[in-house]
Structure formats: structure tokens, C-alpha cells
Fold this sequence. Notes:
Layout: H1 2-30, H2 37-42, H3 48-57, H4 64-76, E1 82-83, E2 88-89, H5 90-125, H6 130-144, H7 147-161, H8 178-212, H9 215-222, H10 227-239, H11 241-264, H12 270-279, H13 283-311
Antiparallel strand pairs: 1-2
Helix pairs in contact: 1-4, 1-13, 5-6, 5-8, 5-11, 5-12, 5-13, 6-8, 7-8, 7-11, 8-10, 8-11, 11-12, 11-13, 12-13
Amino acid sequence: MSQLLRLIGRRLVALPVMILGITFLVFFIMSFSPIDPAYNALGEGASDEAIAQYRKEFGLNDPLLVRYIRFLGGLIVGNLGTYTQQRIPVATRIGEAFPVTISLTFYGLIIAVILALIFGVLAALYRDRWVDQVIRIISIICVATPSFWLAVLLIQAFTINWEIFPAAGPLWQFQDDPQAYIMRMLMPSFALGIPVAGSLTRVIRTAMVEELDKDYVRTALGAGIPKVVVVARNVLRNALITPVTVLGLRIGYLMGGAVIIEVIFALPGMGQAILEGIQQNEPNLVQGVTLVVALAFVVINIVVDMLYLLINPRIRTV
């Protein structure tokens, strides 16, 4: 247990360093934006004197390092700047959009994991038979299918041709209208999760095959223990160590893909927020959205690392 706690402590110590690096990278890149915040805030009719006064008042003429330290100070208290067009804090806009992105990422992850477990285990149990061959072909097709293209196909099939699921419109809260919420989120979740399910299926299948070939499995089966019990209690648990590691990397793909899928399905998430920031020349909004998504990715991967430590006792001695 002490080894486990030390390893978890190392991950937690590394977290602030990674967050600091991300904040500096995002701030440094956005400092090269050709958009003048003073001109954007005051409008096209602002005089040169007003723009100069604005830049002086908000410290835009200060050196980059000074502005970065000021930015960090604001970040600590949750101040990401102001969304100029609507005169609201960027943090407020992100607070409205971020739950949508996290929800979509979570639903896509659940779909990917469920499908990958089912098909990956079946392919391993029936390896080199027709079931395995069919699942291999399907998984390759899923991996080769971009989520945004799959989203377009789903809209064409289930919205335009059959009119089953809506592809746009308001997003109701689950507690207000569960059916409308599920109908609205189902297609985006499948478009996001199917490509990940394809790649994860292949990983689970490979890990299961390697585990099924080990001596303890043959010994257990020879002792008369039912195959279902051996697979469920031992093989599956040991085989999931590698897929969990891969899953941590796929979560970043899911979150990045969610931003694109939200734009296609007109969901009011981080994708729509960053698109607004680009279209309306709002560098503070673009910077805030990018920063929050990057930080969420880092935190999620730290959590996955800890989960990996918990399910793999062998690495605790490293």
C-alpha cells in the first residue's frame, strides 16, 4: 500500500507542473493573435486615444512575463477575462458549455467501452473462426471512419431519411425531459464512440488471446472449473490492464472529437464556444476554452494512471 501511495503522490506532484506548462503554452500562443483586445472591446469607431488608454489601463503594453503572471493570478480566482460581445465573464460562458462537452465525452466513452468489451471478448473466444473474422473487419471499418464523417452519415440516415432522431434544436435538461435529452444526445454519442470502440476492440481481443494462452487458464480448465468462470474471474480482469492504459489516451481523442461533433449537431458545448470566439474575434474566449479542455485532458489522464496502478499490482513495485 505504501508503494501505491508513493506512486499516486508522484502523479499528484507532477499535476501542478503540467498545469503550469499548459497555461504558459496557451497564453504564449494566444499572445501572437493579430486581434487587438482594445480594438475588439471598444469597437471600430474608437479613437486612437481611447485605444491607447484601454491598453494602458488593462496592462496590454506590459512585457509578456508580467501579463502571464497577472493571467495566473486571475486564473487562480477563476477570472479568465471578459467575453466582449455579450459583456459576460468567459468563466460564465465556459461554465455553461463545459458540462455539455463532458457529458458527450462520457456517453461516447460508455458506448465505446461496452461495444469493445462485447466484441473484443467474443473475437478472442472464437479466434480464427468466422465470428472473429467478421469482428475484425467491422473494427477496421470503425477505426478508419472519422467521427465527423460518421456524424454526417447518421444525420442523413436517421434525421433526413427516416426522421427518427433530431440533429439540431434545443438541448433539454435530462430532469426536464429525459426522452428529448436522450434522443438529442444519442447520435452525437454514437458518432463519437464508434471509432474508439473499433480500436479498443482490437486491443481487448489481443490482450484476451494472450491471456487465454497462459498456463493457469489451461490448469483451471483441466481442473473442471467452467470456462465462463475462468474468463470472468481471471482472464478478463488480467486482460483489461493494457486496454485501460490505451483508454486513457483515447479519452483525449474523445474530448477533442466532442468539440467537433458539437458543431455538427449544434450542441451548446465547448465546440460552439470556441467557434463563437473565432467568428466574433474573441481571443479571451478561445484562450479560456482551449485552456479548460487541455487541463481536463491532463486531469483525466492522471485519474486513468491511478486506476491503472490500482488494477495492476505488478507496477506498484516499480
